[in-house]
Design a protein that fits this description.
634 residues, alpha+beta, Heat Shock Protein 90, Ribosomal Protein S5, domain 2, Rossmann fold, 4 domains, 9-stranded mixed beta sheet, 22 strands, 37% helix, elongated
Length: 634
């Protein structure tokens, strides 16, 4: 062993200490996956070397045969894993092995529940698989040298997982990384060739480079110990290049876990090879759970890009639209050059064609999941529904297809679950109904009990209830579905079309005529607080509501703009009243104009509260209400 220099002892980041504690106390119920994690990391290191060597072939240092080797020593009770990938410098080692080198660390620790099974899924989500080595080892050593650095710039990292680690500079002739696991005495089962071979075949057969184990060669008596021979124990071929009929579900699932650094099986996948004008292979996966950074639109995302089986890019964003950023997978093209860059990808017409086809493939996969596995799709929607709602604005070509995948709560439900598809809504629509009715609001309770729904309840018409912050914005891009237009029941002058009988329409017109005087009195009392006053066709039980002008922003959009510091256009609500309500009848008969004004403003403020809005002058509302209460009790 070379002499160590510049040796220092450093403390782990606080979060890593907590993580190691979980690992050491058997966070994983299945200990053998430590080897999968370390092999997966080694494979990534080799991919990175391949990529960097495209522009700097000298990084290969004359050794272009890339591989991973796993060995063991029964006497020393160790397992060693070595790769000749990109390797790490001293700074890399301190950064990557001393901290959770990823944003969202605080989120990770916050989400730990103490439930081992649940927490083990989080480990995968946050990409901290290296620390799984401490499940089976009471000491871990790492020897590494980054490709391109001199042999004297090797680094030795060592830790017992107890809060600190040592790092020193050493001689290392070969680039890459060697990890030595000093197994706990109870874990000596892993210092065994047969056991390691089975684990590799089970979890890492899909890795597209050789994973080698020492070949057992019988010693001949009287001769020197034979030189160590190695044999490849995995298939070592890119899984996506194999025919679908030759790949098992278990292999697809393991490959997903490798590329996504996830511990759960995917919900669905699609493996496809395209030949003809364009030639490429794709393997796309729908995850079972959302990553912690799903709503950070700038977070790393995209497919792994290979060109003729050579790894080029880890997060190629150009192959799928942003609203499908949760999709994991690989795309391998024969039509791109190996020196492709992100800038070139953004301008290449071949990419546009591939993006269109891959987007359609993902949407088809989701349609199939929704149709064949509705319970699974329900889980998908809970995790990714809000992101899918970005689709109609981003992807005009697939707007109808995306709309078919959307799910909503409705007045027919009683728990606010978003489970109703637009196709289901239309299938149970009333005879003669040619519109899709919806209402947006802040909370399910608020929209479920909104006065705007009174006439719909009376006539038994289903209304979609939209309460996500993005919903009003979404509906500004969704004009129709299956030939039926969308109608916001709180906007404009409600017209139920064929759902209103001629008698109903005639009666409403006559009532409106008889109340023209009351309309004028209320308009005078409320002044510029409203844009218009009219008799309502929406109400059956409440005295008054506020409607939104056809071209005005709704409450959701106003709040989003205000929260982002943008100027909100001026607009005033439309005040509608129910002429049959006792309060309105009392108001109509009120001779005192001051008292009439106070009552009108109280009704206006109550309508605003019912709509989920805040009052512009709460003190004035309280004062008027108290005045009225005093008069009533006198």
């Amino acid at each position: 062993m070379s002499v160590e220099t510049q040796k220092e002892t450093l403390g782990f980041q606080t979060e890593v200490k907590q993580l190691l504690h979980l690992m050491i106390h058997s966070l994983y119920s299945n200990k053998e996956i430590f080897l999968r994690e370390l092999i997966s990391n080694a494979s990534d290191a080799v991919d990175k070397l391949r990529f960097e060597a495209l522009s700097k072939p000298e990084l290969l240092e004359g050794g272009a045969e890339l591989k991973i080797r796993v060995s063991f020593d029964k006497d020393a009770n160790t397992v060693t894993l070595e790769d000749n990938g990109i390797g790490m410098s001293r700074d890399d080692v301190i950064t990557h092995l001393g901290t959770i080198a990823k944003s969202g660390t605080a989120d990770f620790m916050k989400n730990l529940s103490g439930d081992q099974k649940k927490d083990s899924h989080l480990i995968g989500q946050f990409g901290v698989g290296f620390y799984s080595a401490f499940i089976v080892a009471d000491q871990v050593e790492v020897f590494s040298r980054r490709a391109g650095l001199s042999a004297s710039e090797g680094v030795h990292w060592s830790s017992k997982g107890e809060g600190e680690f040592e790092v020193a500079t050493v001689e290392k002739a070969d680039r890459g990384t060697r990890i030595v696991l000093h197994l706990k005495s109870a874990e000596n089962e892993f210092a065994d060739g047969w056991r390691l071979r089975n684990i590799i075949k089970k979890y890492s057969d899909h890795i597209a480079l050789p994973i080698e184990l020492p070949k057992e060669v019988a010693a001949v008596e009287g001769e020197e110990k034979p030189a160590l021979e190695w044999e490849t124990v995995n298939r070592a071929s890119a899984l996506w290049t194999r025919p679908r009929t030759e790949v098992t579900d278990a292999e697809y699932q393991e490959f997903y876990k490798h590329i996504a650094h996830d511990y759960e099986n995917p919900l669905s996948w699609s493996h496809n090879k395209v030949e003809g004008k364009l030639e490429y292979s794709s393997l796309l996966y729908v995850p079972a759970r959302a990553p912690f950074d799903l709503y950070q639109r700038e977070a790393p995302k995209g497919l792994k890009l290979y060109v003729q089986r050579v790894f080029v890019m880890d997060q190629a964003e150009s192959f799928l639209p942003l609203y499908l950023r949760f999709i994991k997978g690989v795309v391998d093209s024969n039509d791109l050059s190996l020196n492709v860059s992100r800038e070139i990808l953004q301008k290449d017409p071949i990419i546009d064609s591939m993006k269109s086809a891959l987007t359609k493939r993902v949407l088809d996969m989701l349609e199939k999941l929704a149709k064949n596995e509705p319970e699974q799709y329900k889980g998908f929607w809970k995790n990714f529904g809000q992101v899918m709602k970005e689709g109609p604005a981003e992807d005009f070509a697939n707007k109808e297809k995306i709309a078919g995948l959307l799910r909503f709560a409705s007045t027919l439900g009683d728990d606010g679950e978003q489970v109703v598809s637009l196709a289901e809504y239309l299938a149970r629509a009333k005879e003669g109904q040619d519109k899709i009715y919806f209402l947006t609001g802040e909370t399910y309770a608020q929209v479920k009990n909104s006065p705007h729904l009174e006439v719909f309840r009376k006539k038994g018409i289903e209304v979609l209830l939209l309460t996500d912050r993005i919903d009003e914005w979404l509906m500004s891009y969704l004009n129709e579905f299956d030939g039926k237009s969308f109608v916001d029941v709180a906007r404009g002058d409600l017209d139920l079309g064929n759902l209103d009988s001629e008698e109903d329409k005639k009666a409403a017109e006559e009532v409106a005529k008889t109340k023209e005087g009351l309309v004028e009195r209320i308009k005078t009392a409320l002044g510029d607080a409203v844009s218009e006053v009219r008799v309502s066709h929406r109400l059956t039980d409440s005295p008054a509501i506020l409607a939104i002008g056809e071209q005005d922003l709704g409450l959701q959009m106003r709040q989003i703009l205000e929260a982002s510091g943008q100027k909100v256009p001026d607009s005033k609500p439309i005040f509608e009243f129910n002429p049959a309500h006792p309060l309105i009848e009392k108001l109509d008969g009120e001779p005192d104009e001051d008292r009439f004004g106070d009552l009108s403003h109280i009704l206006l403020d109550q309508a605003a509260l019912a709509a989920g809005d805040s009052l512009k002058d709460p003190a004035a509302y309280v004062r008027r209400l108290n005045k009225l209460l005093v008069e009533l009790s006198a």
